[in-house]
Design a protein that fits this description.
- One of its GO terms (biological process) is regulation of DNA-templated transcription.
- One of its GO terms (cellular component) is membrane.
- Helices cover about 65% and strands about 15% of the residues.
- It is α+β, with helices and mostly antiparallel strands and about 525 residues long.
- The protein has 4 domains: about 140 residues, de novo design (two linked rop proteins) (Up-down Bundle); about 100 residues, 2-Layer Sandwich (Beta-Lactamase); about 70 residues; about 120 residues, Heat Shock Protein 90, CATH 3.30.565.10.
- Strands 2-1-5-4-3 form a 5-stranded antiparallel β-sheet. It has a 5-stranded mixed β-sheet with strand order 6-7-8-10-9.
- A hairpin with a 2-residue loop joins strand 7 and strand 8.
Length: about 525
């Protein structure tokens, strides 16, 4: 079947290659034939004008002679450039004979004029007729040879077309039979594929297919709904471009990359997914797809896992995944960036003076960009998981975050506290850190404030944290959005309360959290604070 389809294709390619060459040759011969006819006509008018001048002394005939002599010489030169090498000598002889005739007329005929009536006039007419016969014979011989060659070329081209057309007809019949046989054999497979397509489209599970070039090729309606993706927007795009449009899809693509790049299968993998309106706990399966022994893509299926009864389990799972992702970024991307920076430093230190100035400048610029990327990567890691809390505690981690916030958003942040170590568990510190982080993000997005004050006040067994900006008062009440909703949910999960509103000078968010009582919890916190210092 493959051969019967391949043979007509090869024949078409061969015909498409040879036929234009044959047609070009035919076209070139036609141009030559036109030049032959034009030269023959020019010689006829040229000699006729001279003859009229000899008999009648017509001045217009002399002008016609000069006009046709120029045109004929031009046509002969064009013909000389068109003909093949073997016929250039014949054309050159015609050109020489035309020049000799023109010279004869200018030297012998014109000086004597038509009024000269002596015995030499007969000799002049005889010489003129002899040159005319030579010109006409030479031009007719060239035209006859060109016409015969044109005819032979046309016959060869038609014969080639007839043979190739007949062969194409039989091969096409053979290919048609092969296609019909293939269609009959593949009909069950097509029916199975159609049923599978309907099943995937109507499935309650989200199904996503990505090809080996990391382009999203298909997602069913359940995937559109679950992942909040638009098929018209996302289909056909690279995963990197999709992450720019839908950054919340970051965790979903990780199993897809593992399947495409490493050929790893993922089965019943729990995944915490951040979607508009809250977080979902998903169960994800992902596997590579092979075609002819090569990876053709990856297919991912996802379903919403039942939400655990204890909300702290879900939040603990989310933070654990965030921590894992932060470690992966540090261990892989951070390591590669560090290697690139050290490599550039080595090249600039050892070979910098030998490099051209422009190359050295570009290397320095590349090194600066890598360094900036490493700084941004640490900031992203800190947004994903505040790793400094595990090392130094909540307040030092907030001081580090606020310094980066000031640099990016050009807003001053002041943190007021009595003790750097708080009587809080590590998990509760992470939740408080997230709430303060979201509050500062809201200031950067929605407020014209230039300063933000964060006050930590301990009263008995209660910790009150107040985040106040100087963005000014507003008459309308704040409309709760996703950020404020998430802050209230986090406060509720750790047994606290969140209040917000406009006060004198700006917008204020107040978080009230019960402190852990003494005993084991306090000892752990003290040990943690001491280890961080």
């Amino acid at each position: 079947m493959f051969i019967t389809i391949l043979l007509p294709v090869l024949l078409l390619i061969y015909t498409g290659y040879t036929l234009p060459q044959q047609l070009n040759q035919v076209e070139l011969e036609f141009q030559r034939q036109i030049e032959y006819q034009e030269i023959t006509s020019g010689i006829y008018h040229l000699t006729g004008a001279v003859q009229d001048y000899i008999f009648y002394g017509n001045a217009q005939a002399l002008n016609d002679f000069r006009h046709y002599s120029v045109e004929t010489a031009k046509r002969e030169l064009q013909l000389y450039n068109l003909v093949e090498q073997s016929r250039k000598q014949d054309v050159a002889e015609l050109m020489a004979l035309t020049r000799a005739y023109t010279s004869f007329v200018e030297r012998e005929v014109i000086p004597r004029g038509a009024s000269h009536r002596d015995t030499s006039r007969e000799l002049l007419l005889w010489q003129h007729r002899d040159l005319c016969r030579q010109l006409a014979y030479r031009a007719a011989a060239l035209a006859g040879d060109g016409g015969q060659k044109n005819k032979d070329l046309l016959e060869r081209t038609l014969a080639l077309l007839r043979k190739e057309g007949l062969l194409m007809f039989f091969l096409s019949l053979l290919s048609l039979g092969a296609v019909l046989w293939t269609g009959t054999a593949l009909r069950p497979l097509a029916a199975w594929y159609s049923c599978l397509q309907d099943l995937v489209r109507d499935s309650s599970r989200a199904v996503v297919f990505v090809d080996r070039k990391e382009r999203l090729q298909y997602l069913n309606p359940a995937a559109e709904k679950l992942f909040n993706l638009s098929r018209e927007t996302a289909a056909g795009k690279n995963l990197g471009d999709i992450l720019i449009l839908y950054p919340h899809w970051q965790k979903v693509v990780q199993p897809i990359y593992q399947a495409l790049l490493q050929g790893e299968k993922t089965a019943d993998c729990p995944l915490s997914y951040n979607r508009e309106g809250g977080r979902l706990l998903l169960t994800v399966d992902c596997a590579p797809v092979y075609l002819f022994g090569r990876t053709a893509g990856a297919v991912l299926t996802a379903r919403q896992a039942p939400e655990p009864k204890d909300g702290t389990i879900l939040l603990d799972t989310i933070e654990r995944e965030r921590k894992h992702l932060s470690i992966e970024i540090h261990d892989w991307i951070g390591r590669y960036l560090s290697s690139i920076i050290h490599g550039l430093d080595y090249v600039l230190r050892v070979h910098g003076e030998k490099l051209p100035e422009e190359v050295q400048k570009n290397l320095c610029l590349l090194r600066t960009q890598c360094q900036n990327a490493a700084i941004d990567m640490r900031s992203i890691m800190n947004d994903i998981h505040p790793y400094l809390i595990e090392k130094v505690g909540l307040i030092p981690a907030l001081e580090s975050y606020s310094a980066n916030f000031e640099r990016i958003h050009n807003r001053r942040v002041y943190i007021f506290y009595r003790q750097r170590s708080l009587r809080l568990g590590r998990d509760r510190e992470i939740f408080i850190y997230r709430i303060i982080q979201e509050a500062l993000t809201n200031v950067a997005r929605h407020s014209a404030a230039t300063e933000v004050d964060i006050h930590f006040n301990e009263t008995g067994d209660t910790l009150q944290i107040e985040i106040l900006d100087n963005g000014g008062m507003r008459e309308e009440e704040p409309v709760p959005g996703k950020g404020l909703w998430g802050m209230k949910e986090r406060a509720r999960f750790i047994g606290g309360d969140l209040a917000y509103g406009f006060m004198d000078g700006g917008f204020c968010v107040t978080l009230t959290v019960p402190l852990t009582e003494g005993g084991k919890g306090s000892e752990e916190d003290r040990d943690h604070a001491g280890g961080g210092s």
